[in-house]
Amino acid sequence: MPRVSSKRAGLEEASSEPSGPRSLTRLLGLFEILSKARNGMTLAELNVALESPKSSLLNLLRPLVAEGYLVHNESSYRLGPSIFRLSAGVMSAWDFPRMIRPFMEELAARTEETVMLGVMVPEAEAITYVEIIESPHPIRYQIPVGTSRPLYASSAGRLLVAFSTPAWRKQYLATVALKAKMEIPFTRASLSKEVAKIQAEGLSCSFGSYSKGLASVAAPVFDAAGRCVASLNVAGPSERFQNELDFLKATVKEVATKASGMISVIERPVGGQTA
């Protein structure tokens, strides 16, 4: 079971304020251990991991559940949608989206479709869109930065599954709960088949699977070590995409490859060794 670090525990002990630094430290510890607990944790488990009285924990947990930072069901607490929106906001201030932005602008100019940069949140089995450039067309795909979806429910999310580590991918495909409402629902068997297809083609395409009339094409962005760190995708009306599919696939893949090359150059110091 995850336990809060001894350093953090020491910080708690050093504080005599019940609602000051001690509460803040306990809150950070709570998010830290829940981020590592894929199946959530019960109150009793949190009590042991945080070394905190149950009464104090309940006073902390209840408002977090009410505000959507945690989800409480079947006696377990898990990270909720509000914390992922917050993390997306933090990530949007990170250098990575700014590094990729010029490539997104190129893709937007060449395709005139909405361009999105998505990253995986493994603990939530979700994709979060951390940077978006909207299409100039009056009929276009439009979502706010910070939007999260289950990985299986979007072409970009399925791409991230396809290029995740083999062990993580195997566990995900064997245990994923397919609960999101989709126009064309997946089963575990059909999802596994789709992921294998994405691996073979190096691209993920979708026509109306999540929502009728919506299409998307996604390609992976890799770091210097060959790890997939993001998805770069275009999305828009299915009718436009059907007419331009070959062009869109080639363009998205080309720009994502250029972005990967830029990341590799930045991460690899003189001498060719990866940091």
Key descriptive features of the protein:
Beta-Lactamase; three-stranded antiparallel beta sheet; Arc Repressor Mutant, subunit A; single chain; six-stranded antiparallel beta sheet; 19% strand; 275 residues
Give a brief outline of the structure.
By secondary structure, the protein is α+β, with helices and mostly antiparallel strands.
Q: Cα-atom Rg, whole angstroms? A: 21 Å
Secondary-structure-based class equals: alpha+beta
The top-level CATH class of the largest domain is Alpha Beta
| Number of E strands | 9
Quick one: overall form? elongated
The poorly predicted ranges are 1-19, 268-275
Task: Spell out the blueprint of helices and strands.
Blueprint: H1 6-14, H2 21-35, E1 41-42, H3 43-50, H4 54-66, E2 70-73, E3 76-79, H5 81-92, H6 95-111, E4 114-121, E5 126-133, E6 148-150, H7 155-162, H8 166-175, H9 188-201, E7 204-207, E8 214-222, E9 228-237, H10 238-267
Antiparallel strand pairs: 1-3, 2-3, 4-5, 4-9, 5-6, 7-8, 8-9
Give an account of the 3D structure.
- By secondary structure, the chain is of the alpha+beta class.
- The protein folds into two domains: 6-79, Orthogonal Bundle (Arc Repressor Mutant, subunit A); 87-267, GAF domain (Beta-Lactamase).
- Helices cover 49% and strands 19% of the residues.
- The strands form two sheets. A six-stranded antiparallel sheet has the order 6-5-4-9-8-7, sandwiched between helices. A three-stranded antiparallel sheet has the order 1-3-2.
- A hairpin with a 4-residue loop joins strand 4 (114-121) and strand 5 (126-133).
- The radius of gyration is 21 Å and the shape is elongated.
- 31% of the residues are buried.
